[in-house]
Automatic annotation (TrEMBL):
Gene Ontology CC terms, in alphabetical order: nucleoplasm; ribonuclease H2 complex
Annotated localization: Nucleus
Designated name of the protein: Ribonuclease H2 subunit B
Family as reported in the entry's similarity comment: Belongs to the RNase H2 subunit B family.
Record note on quaternary structure: The RNase H2 complex is a heterotrimer composed of the catalytic subunit RNASEH2A and the non-catalytic subunits RNASEH2B and RNASEH2C.
Pfam families assigned: RNase_H2-Ydr279, Ydr279_N
Sorted UniProt keywords: Nucleus
Domain Ribonuclease H2 subunit B wHTH: 91-164
Record carries keyword Metal-binding: no
Domain Rnh202 triple barrel: 26-88
Function: Non catalytic subunit of RNase H2, an endonuclease that specifically degrades the RNA of RNA:DNA hybrids. Participates in DNA replication, possibly by mediating the removal of lagging-strand Okazaki fragment RNA primers during DNA replication. Mediates the excision of single ribonucleotides from DNA:RNA duplexes.
Biological process terms in GO annotation: RNA catabolic process
Length: 164
C-alpha cells in the first residue's frame, strides 16, 4: 500500500483462529483492537474484541532480533509475530470489581467498570452471559429491577480453583 509520500504502510503478521479470519471478511467492523488494563500488571495491553461473537483475545507479541517477513511483493522489517489468544473476560472484570470493593457496597456495573485511562473497558459490559459470569465472583442484589454487584473473595477463590 502506498501512503502517497513514497513510504509504504506498515504491515503486521497475525496468527488468528480461522473463525476470526472469516468473521472479519463478513463484517468489516466485526474486529476491534482496544487497549484495556492488564489485570496482572495494571498496565495497558492490546486486546482484540470480536464484536460479532462477543469474544475477547489478548494480543501477544513474539519478537526476535534480525527477522523480517515477506508479504506479497515486499519485505517487512521487524519480524514481529502477533498471536491472538482467547482470554476469559472475567479476569479483566475482576480488576474493576476488586477496585470497587474498597468502597464495601453493592454498585451497578456501570459504576464499577469505569476507567479514564482505558475508556473501552465499557465493551466488557456488552459480553453475552455477563450476569452468568458475574455469579462466579460477586454477590448480587436486585432493587427495583436494577442489579447491583459486590465482589466476593470466597466465590472468586472457588471459581479460580475450578480453573486450575
Amino acid at each position: 500500500m502506498d501512503c502517497g509520500n513514497g513510504a509504504r504502510a506498515r504491515q503486521h503478521v497475525f496468527l488468528l483462529p480461522e473463525y476470526l479470519k472469516d468473521a472479519s471478511k463478513k463484517m468489516k467492523s466485526g474486529l476491534m483492537f482496544v487497549k484495556l488494563v492488564n489485570p496482572c500488571s495494571g498496565e495497558g495491553t492490546i486486546y482484540l474484541f470480536d464484536m460479532c461473537l462477543q469474544q475477547l483475545f489478548e494480543i501477544k507479541i513474539f519478537k526476535e532480533k534480525h527477522h523480517s517477513w515477506f508479504i506479497n511483493q515486499s519485505v517487512q522489517s521487524g519480524g514481529l509475530l502477533h498471536f491472538a489468544t482467547p482470554v476469559d473476560p472475567l479476569f479483566l472484570l475482576l480488576h474493576y470489581l476488586r477496585k470497587a470493593d474498597k468502597e464495601g457496597r453493592f454498585q451497578p456495573l456501570e459504576q464499577v467498570v469505569v476507567d479514564d485511562m482505558f475508556p473501552n473497558c465499557i465493551l466488557l459490559l456488552k459480553l453475552p452471559d455477563l450476569e452468568k459470569l458475574l455469579q462466579h465472583v460477586t454477590e448480587e442484589k436486585e432493587i427495583d429491577k436494577k442489579k447491583y454487584y459486590k465482589y466476593s473473595k470466597e466465590k472468586t477463590i472457588k471459581w479460580l480453583e475450578k480453573k486450575v
